[in-house]
Design brief:
Shape: globular
CATH superfamily: Formyl transferase, N-terminal domain
CATH architecture: 3-Layer(aba) Sandwich
Largest sheet: 7 strands, mixed
Radius of gyration: 16 Å
Strand content: 15-25%
Structural class: alpha/beta
Order of helices and strands: EHEHEHEHEHEEH
Length: 194
C-alpha cells in the first residue's frame, strides 16, 4: 500500500469536521491517515468517536496550564512528535496558538473557517454575514499562520444566503460544505507532500 501522510486533528467539542476527515480517510486511496485526535477539553465527545474508530485520542486540558500557553503547546508538540505527525488539522479547536507553535508547524497546519476569507475573520461569522446582507457565504480551508485567519487559502466552498436565513440555518448549510471542503483540502495538501 502507498504511504499515507500521518495526520493529527485538534478538536474542542464533538468534532464534526474531524469526523468528516476520519470518514474520508477510510478510503484506501485517500492520501492522509488520521492517526491522532487531541482535544483541549477532556469532556469533548469527539474523543469517544475517535476511539470508537480505532484512533488514538488524547485530552490535554489547557486549564491545567493556567496562563502558560507555551507549556500547553509544548505538551501538544511533544505528543505530535511522539506520534510522528506530519500534518495537523484544526477542527473546531477553540484555542489561539502562539506564533512559536504556529511557526514550528508552518506549512503543515490547516484550519477550517466558517466564512469566505478574507471576509469575516474571527467569531460570529454567520450573524455578521446576515447583518451585512451578503448574497454569498461559505467556508475556507487555509494554512495556519501566526495572524488569525490570515493564512494562504487552500480551498473555499460557497453557499447562497437565502432571504429567510437565520444564523442557525445558514450555519447548518455552511457546515455541510465544510464537511466536503476539509477532506478535499487535506487530500490536496497530503498528495503534494507525498
Amino acid at each position: 500500500m502507498t504511504r499515507r501522510i500521518r495526520t493529527a486533528v485538534f478538536i474542542s467539542g464533538r468534532g464534526s469536521n474531524m469526523q468528516s476527515l476520519v470518514h474520508a480517510a477510510k478510503a484506501k486511496d485517500y492520501p492522509a491517515d488520521i492517526v491522532l485526535v487531541i482535544s483541549n477539553r477532556p469532556e469533548a465527545t469527539g474523543l469517544e468517536f475517535a476511539r470508537a474508530n480505532g484512533i488514538t485520542a488524547i485530552a490535554v486540558d489547557h486549564k491545567l496550564y493556567g496562563k502558560d500557553r507555551a507549556a500547553f503547546e509544548g505538551e501538544l508538540h511533544k505528543i505530535l512528535l511522539e506520534h510522528k505527525i506530519e500534518l495537523v488539522c484544526l477542527a473546531g479547536f477553540m484555542r489561539l496558538m502562539t506564533a512559536d507553535f504556529v511557526n514550528r508547524w508552518a506549512g503543515r497546519m490547516l484550519n477550517i473557517h466558517p466564512a469566505l476569507l478574507p471576509a469575516y475573520k474571527g467569531l460570529h461569522t454567520h450573524e455578521r454575514a446576515l447583518a451585512d446582507g451578503v448574497a454569498q457565504h461559505g467556508c475556507t480551508v487555509h494554512f495556519v499562520v501566526p495572524e488569525m485567519d490570515e493564512g494562504p487559502v487552500i480551498l473555499q466552498r460557497a453557499v447562497p444566503v437565502l432571504p429567510d436565513d437565520t444564523p442557525e440555518t445558514l450555519s447548518a448549510r455552511v457546515l455541510e460544505q465544510e464537511h466536503i471542503a476539509y477532506p478535499a483540502a487535506l487530500a490536496q495538501v497530503a498528495k503534494s507532500r507525498l
